[in-house]
Amino acid sequence: MSREKYRKLLQLQEETPVVVMRSKKKGRTLWMFENEFYWGDKCYTVDEVETMILVQQMGLQPFDQHVSLAVQIRAMNRYHKQSDELHRQSDGLRRHGDELKQQGDTYVALGRWMDGHIKAEQPLTTAEVEDQMLGLGFIIEDIQDLRVASGADIIDKVRDWMQPRLNAIGAQLGAIGVQMEAIAAQMEAIGAQKEAASAEMEAIMAEISLGLPEPIPVARAPIPAEIKAIPGEREPIPDWMRRAALDRDQGICRYCGRRAMTLHLDHVMPVSQGGRSTIENLVTTCAKCNLKKGGRTPKEAGTTLLPPGTLRG
């Protein structure tokens, strides 16, 4: 943040009430100006403040490294959603293109059938053409349109009627091709952004420890005091904790590293062994891994607890 901008903020502080919250211990005020948040002499974006709140809910200290990592995790989640949306758009365009190609093939089949009769010098009647059209899959409305079309005979009428429709199909297929190329370019760009975010996450995680669930607890190891509870007594999981765990793990099973349509929240240290419902002790898991682990620790179940966001297969 430049000194000039900081002075401008100080001048406008009394004129514009932008105070978000105050910290009595540190004597600082978090306030907003031009969609940016200022805490002391540091400036944060809206996304960074949101992730700081998430980090605090996860029981972490809001160090800059943690904020940066949380920003990358949320960015990766956005990239996944954008990629999924582009895949849906691509699938829709592909289905529409297939329907158009099928329509075009029907027109071409009718034209070839007529050409065969012309070569054989076999005259065609309107009734024969209409029967052939119904056999090829044309609808009654098509036949009604053909009946009012202009033309010296039935063959000219069919050709004059088909040509603009074939041209329209070709134009639509061309437009779909352009859209598919644009989607492919966007997906390539998102792929590059994913790789950059993943590399940044790995670099940050190599420097700091997040304080997330410990690696696999050994059998009969002392249970950390912060997750001890009465064995077998299940605590309710608050909604904010569910959302934080799902957001942290990015819709990926923490045991097999695969995405799943349905995810469960699993206690790393089982409730039956004194595990509590805390953000450090809750991870997302697919139904298969959840069933396999059951009321055991990961080591007892012969599985591995993966870092958040680790995608395999």
Characteristics of this structure?
DNA Binding (I), subunit A, 313 residues, 9 helices, alpha+beta, 4-stranded antiparallel sheet, 9% strand, 3 domains, two-stranded antiparallel ribbon
Number of domains: 3
The Cα radius of gyration reads 32 Å
- The strand line-up of the biggest sheet is 1-2-3-4
Shape: elongated
Structural class: alpha+beta
What series of H and E elements makes up the topology? HEEEEHHHHHHEEHH
Annotation, overall tally of beta strands: 6
Mean pLDDT: 75
Termini separation (Å)? 43 Å
- The tally of helices reads 9
Percentage of residues in strands: 5-15%
Contiguous runs where pLDDT drops below 50 for at least 5 residues: 12-28, 57-62, 209-232
Helix content: 55-70%
- Describe the sheet with the most strands: 4 strands, antiparallel
Layout of helices and strands, plus pairs?
Layout lengths: L2 H11 L5 E5 L4 E6 L2 E4 L2 E4 H12 L6 H56 L6 H11 L3 H8 L6 H54 L31 H11 L13 E5 L14 E5 H7 L4 H4 L12
Helix pairs in contact: 2-3, 3-4, 3-6
Write a short abstract of this structure.
The protein is of the alpha+beta class and 313 residues long. 56% of the residues lie in helices and 9% in strands.
Description:
- The chain is built from nine helices and six strands; from the N terminus they run H-E-E-E-E-H-H-H-H-H-H-E-E-H-H.
- It has helices at residues 3-13, 46-57, 64-119, 126-136, 140-147, 154-207, 239-249, 287-293, 298-301, and strands spanning 19-23, 28-33, 36-39, 42-45, 263-267, 282-286.
- The chain is elongated, with a radius of gyration of 32 Å.
- Helix 2 (46-57) crosses helix 3, helix 3 packs antiparallel against helix 4 and helix 3 packs antiparallel against helix 6.
- The strands form two sheets. It has a four-stranded antiparallel β-sheet with strand order 1-2-3-4. Strands 5-6 form a two-stranded antiparallel sheet.
- The two termini are 43 Å apart.
- It has three domains: 3-61, no CATH class; 73-207; 225-301, Orthogonal Bundle (DNA Binding (I), subunit A).
- Strand 1 and strand 2 (28-33) form a beta hairpin.
- The chain is α+β, with helices and mostly antiparallel strands.
